[in-house]
Amino acid sequence: MKIKVLPLGPLETNCYILEHEDEVLIIDPSGDADEIISAVEEGQRVKAILLTHAHFDHIGALDEVAAHFGVDVWIGREEQDWLGDASKNGSGKYRDMGLELIESSITPEIIGEGESRIGSFKFQVLHTPGHSPGSMSFLFEGFIVSGDVLFNGGIGRTDLYQADHLTLLNSIREKLYTLDEDLTVYPGHGPDTTIGEEKTGNPFVRA
């Protein structure tokens, strides 16, 4: 499997394009829809869009990308109504700073914890709340896409709508730190890391 990392949008949020044979999954179309669309090569078939969570900086290009490829959007149940609600997805809070108001018209499909398969992609969904109540991490063979739960040397903010610090720490310790230490972590912002590196070196939460 090949992975393309595109830091996009006003907060340089990582959009991930996963390629397996001639199929593609897009995770968190954060902004700059044209760049995401151009990154999908001719002959490749986009099977779906996965969202780690519904904060505005992860969905800035959602409507345009979903419409272009004509695919379903999958998100955790707790945040299915956040896409069209600027007060929940956070875009309303920053409108006076010149950021775009995000009010998506998409009705998403619901994805829950457990084994999942979309096209030729097999993966495990881990419910990792704390940064937001519906945060999902997507575990593939050899790597995990963690959204804004765990970063390289950091963790997600918990001063946002329905966020909770202790819940976030529990998600990291109980869901992520129990995984293989060699597993690569692809976060919502910044460079990748590994589970082992964070267990020993993350200053915000140790194993």
TrEMBL record:
Keywords carried by this UniProt record: Hydrolase, Metal-binding, Zinc
Protein name stated in the entry: Hydroxyacylglutathione hydrolase
Domain Metallo-beta-lactamase: 12-189
InterPro entries: MBL_Glyoxalase_II, Metallo-B-lactamas, RibonucZ/Hydroxyglut_hydro
Single GO MF annotation: hydrolase activity
Cofactor(s) needed for function: Zn(2+)
CDD domains xrefs: metallo-hydrolase-like_MBL-fold
Matches recorded under Gene3D superfamilies: Ribonuclease Z/Hydroxyacylglutathione hydrolase-like
Pfam families assigned: Lactamase_B
Domain of life: Bacteria
SMART domains: Lactamase_B
